[in-house]
Amino acid sequence: MSNIINRVIFVDDDTIQHMINRKNLLRIKPDIELFFFENPFNALDWLQDNDADLLILDVNMPEMTGWNFLDLLKEKDIDIEVKMLTSSMDPSDIEMSLNYSMVSGFLVKPLKNEIMAEILGILP
Asked: What's the rounded Cα separation, in Å, for the pair 21 and 103?
């Protein structure tokens, strides 16, 4: 991967996944900066004042869908690479993602260490 990933923001309502992802990512890249949000509105506020290299965004959250979140990113002119996080690969989600140039792919829960190492540009 050509981009160096040093700061990652997660937007997902699953706190257990946050704990697992934090532990695994810090093991893969100890100096990475990680930011976790359960509430998408708080994440949007954070993104208006802060930069990150990658946003990992849950497709299905109770407050709003990942698609609604992407619409708000566009509306607020926030430019960030996004990987959509999902429990199951729904073909309609892949089709929907084509409407968003910032979406660079999909990740399936739970995140595997090999996939995260690849995304971070770290060879196994």
From this structure: 20
pTM of the model: 0.93
Q: Find tokens 């084509």 and name the residue.
A: 98
Based on the structure, what is the number of domains in the chain? 1
| pLDDT above 50: residue 70 | yes
Domain contains 1:
no
The per-residue pLDDT for range 25-45, each reduced to its tens digit, is: 999 999 999 999 999 999 999
Q: Answer yes or no: is 92 within a domain.
A: yes
Question: What is the tens place of the pLDDT at every residue in 1-24?
Answer: 346 899 999 999 999 999 999 999
CATH number of the domain to which 91 belongs: 3.40.50.2300
Tell me the one-letter amino acid at 44: L
Residues 54 and 67: their CA atoms lie apart, in Å, by 16
The C-alpha angle 92, 72, 60, rounded to 5 degrees, equals 40
